[in-house]
Amino acid sequence: MKTQAIVLAGGKGRRMGGATPKQYLMLKDKPVLYYSLRAFEDSFIDEVILVCGEGEEEYCRKEIVLKYGFTKVVKIVSGGRERFDSVYNGLEASDGCDYVYIHDGARPLVSQYILERCQHYVEKYRAAVAGAKAKDTIKMDNGDGFIESTPDRDRMWLMQTPQVFEYGLIKTCYEKLIQDRERLASAGVNVTDDTMVAKMYGNIDAKLVENPDPNLKITTPEDLKIAGFLLDK
Question: Using CA atoms, how far apart are residues 94 and 101, in angstroms rounded to an integer?
Answer without folding.
Answer: 12
